[in-house]
Amino acid sequence: MDSSELYHVKQQFILGAYKTLVDLSLPDPNSPDHTPTLLYQARAHIALNNPKAAIALLPDGSSNVAVKAAASLARYVAATDAASKDSQLEDLRDLAVEIEGEDADGSEKDRALVRVLAGTAFARAGEVEEALETLGGATEDLEAVSVIVQIYLSINRPDLARKEFDRAKKWAEDDLLLQLIESTIGLVSGKDGYSNCNSFYTEQIGNPSLSSPHLLTARGVTRILRNEFPEAKSDLEESMEQQKGDAETLAAYVVASGLAAPKKPEVDELWNRLVSEHPEHPLVVDVASKAQLFDECAAKFEVPPTAAARA
């Protein structure tokens, strides 16, 4: 059973309190909490899009399979060319095979985490089938279920995500992560007018021992979907103060500002900021592709001559 300190670290990671987590002091190297905390911190750095910090944190030459997998995932995220990314994916494939052997090193928790980290990398690479196969269709690891659900939602299959969640409820305890999975599905599907996910995010934001811009952004998005635009902007502004430069929060803020009693110059300024700071964001790419399509269609349209006025 996890110590209370490790439980708190796990809670921070699950709820996206990444900045708080990376600032924690590591336990004594001889403590059983040391390596699990180290791994949560490394994963938090990756989530903050700072993979180099994760690489610096993880010890070189470790024999722990989970540490190896975390380092490979960090190097994959940090890689800037296809060859380097492919190399790290191959390392993760090798680790995923290694842990299935009868004499595999590491505890069951370590091996489960290898599957989660490898599956995450494969999903990021667009290898959806490989990711799902690595995570395991009949897995009873809740973190793996969480990634599987995210994958299904990313390919617009909320029905399969719900099916995976319903399967997990049969064996998982009423875990915080299980509640988060349900809320994420509700956010995408709009079930019950987003009431469940809105309640969950509000409850967790009220936790005095937790500070998570991720939760504020999630509730902000929920409030946009509930047509609560001033409240959404308030959440998103607070989130941006806590975590400057976050692309998802800025994109949501642009949407909320555009839908709320809009002041066009302000909205245009926000949009230009998003385009400038995050040119590869899906919203920016989608709008650019639609603008290009409109221009192509407009170029093919011939304006008929103006009819001559009758005398």
TrEMBL record:
The keyword Protein transport applies. It is a peripheral membrane protein. The keyword Hydrolase does not apply. It is found in: Cytoplasmic vesicle, COPI-coated vesicle membrane; Golgi apparatus membrane. Its main location: membrane. Keywords: Cytoplasm, Cytoplasmic vesicle, ER-Golgi transport, Golgi apparatus, Membrane, Protein transport, Transport. The coatomer is a cytosolic protein complex that binds to dilysine motifs and reversibly associates with Golgi non-clathrin-coated vesicles, which further mediate biosynthetic protein transport from the ER, via the Golgi up to the trans Golgi network. The coatomer complex is required for budding from Golgi membranes, and is essential for the retrograde Golgi-to-ER transport of dilysine-tagged proteins. PANTHER family: COATOMER SUBUNIT EPSILON. Belongs to the COPE family. This is Coatomer subunit epsilon. It comes from Hohenbuehelia grisea.
